[in-house]
Design a protein that fits this description.
Creatine Amidinohydrolase, four-stranded antiparallel β-sheet, five-stranded antiparallel β-sheet, 4 helices, alpha+beta, single chain
Length: 263
């Protein structure tokens, strides 16, 4: 069932979104050669606790997963697209890092992600991949207005990704957000304009493009059961905002989330 949120509920989700953005900004600013994703995850856990929030990913155990998720962030490096478990290997110059985070506070959730290239000499191809993922996100948000269709959002995202020659992670997209992290409806990253659910004021969704260099959509699971990697070792980027559909246009509830960084 799709639940439309009241203005006060949107403010409550926005409070969770502010924490998500603050924590991701700290991770973004401390991600550098020699820092490990696990160390960044430990920092994120401390910041979430200090804000009085609860990490939504930690202990999350959907039916398809072999084990509960063991960290507070997802940290996906290079050919890992999403759901990467933060590990102890230090980040190296040129690594492409994507970090995803959701938190709950006062019973409400928000979810966001960003990608960045580590170090001072990024590969221009990685810079363009990250930038295109951000452009796809912005296009999807711009299309999310009352009376539009979900297909308009999906089409806006997919057109930018495909025009850049990138793949779109198969079988994955965004989702509704509210009391729980994953609510109806599904938000696809590719589709036909004018089709699908009519968007209404009060709907809260996470829009999250996941683009793959090389143009392939396929992926494989790591033995950990969580990490999704590209099928051919191509690099990938992931970006996300939680937004609300309002009569005044899309309201980004994670607006302080960091944007692309290449240094």
């Amino acid at each position: 069932m799709i639940e439309l949120k009241t203005p006060s509920e949107l403010d409550a989700i926005g409070a969770a979104g502010k924490i998500v953005g603050d924590v991701l900004t700290a991770v973004h600013d401390h991600a550098a050669p020699g820092r490990s994703p696990r160390g960044l995850d430990d920092m994120a856990a401390d910041l979430i606790a200090a804000a009085g929030a609860t990490p939504t990913f930690l202990g999350y155990h959907p039916q398809w997963a072999p084990q509960p998720y063991p960290a507070v962030t997802c940290a996906s490096v290079n050919d890992a697209v999403v759901h990467g478990i933060p590990g102890p290997t230090p980040l190296a110059p040129g690594d492409l890092l994507s970090v995803d985070l959701a938190v709950h506070i006062d019973g409400w959730c928000a979810d966001a992600a960003f990608s960045m290239v580590i170090g001072d000499d990024p590969d221009p191809a990685d810079v363009e991949l990250v930038a295109t993922t951000e452009r796809a996100l912005a296009a999807g948000i711009a299309a999310a207005r009352p009376g539009a269709r979900m297909g308009d959002v999906a089409n806006a995202i997919g057109k930018i990704g495909r025009a850049g020659g990138y793949g779109l992670l198969a079988d994955h997209g965004g989702h509704g957000v509210g009391r729980t992290m994953h609510e109806a409806p599904h938000v696809p990253n590719e589709g036909k304009a004018g089709r699908g659910l009519t968007l209404r004021s009060g709907l809260v969704i996470a829009i999250e493009p996941m683009l793959i260099a090389g143009g392939r959509d396929r992926y494989r699971h790591d033995p950990d059961g969580w990490t999704l990697r590209t099928s051919d070792g191509s690099r990938a980027a992931h970006t996300e905002h939680t937004i609300a559909i309002t009569e005044d246009g899309p309201r980004v509830l994670t607006a302080n989330r960091p944007h692309a960084k290449t240094g």
